[in-house]
């Protein structure tokens, strides 16, 4: 079954719904691409998807900060890629 993928335009941020779970896919790199796909709650996904384009970024930033805090608590000091873009299918 194909995942349901919604791009949060115009940013390179996607919400992916796959196997009854939600993920946020984003580029975590500052000077190079570090693609990540991290699990988020259904509540967070729905907040992002329901937000108006003019108000979505604060919601995304809150979710990404939570992910960053979880990674730091797990001892990860720098983001590492955990997702590779599928160049054949674009997403």
UniProtKB/TrEMBL annotation:
Biased composition (Polar residues): 74-84
Region (Disordered): 71-91
Domain of life the protein comes from: Bacteria
Protein name as catalogued: Uncharacterized protein
Annotated source species: Shewanella electrica
